[in-house]
Amino acid sequence: MKQFRLSDNRAQKTVSITIQKHKEQLERKVESENQSNASPSLAESQKHQSGIQDQQPT
């Protein structure tokens, strides 16, 4: 019983470490996306939005 609890704790620790890593990767991804979104001019982003609107059937 003690052994099971020990391995259960180890599995739980591994899961929390994995979640932490994924969280850090996501935050890094969002950060880089925010930076790349901030770099292009406003006109560029408006062009992108109008491009999306052009694809919609009228």
Structural summary, described in words:
Residues 33-58 have a biased composition (Polar residues). Residues 24-58 are annotated as: Disordered. With 58 residues, the chain is mainly alpha-helical. Helix content is 88%, strand content 0%. The chain starts with a helix and ends with a helix. The mean pLDDT is 71.
Number of strands: 0
Query: What summary fits the major beta sheet?
Result: none
Mean pLDDT: 71
Poorly predicted runs: none
Structural class of the helices, strands and pairings? mainly alpha
Net shape: rod-shaped
Which oligomeric form is depicted? single chain
**Tally the helices: what do you get?**
2
Order of helices and strands: HH
The value of Rg in angstroms is: 22 Å
Percent range for β-strand residues: under 5%
In which range does the helix fraction lie?
Answer: over 70%
First-to-last CA distance: 67 Å
Quick recap:
This protein is mainly alpha-helical and 58 residues long. 88% of the residues lie in helices and 0% in strands. It has two helices and no strands.
How are the secondary structure elements laid out?
Elements: H1 2-38, H2 42-55
Name the descriptors.
mainly alpha; 2 helices; 88% helix
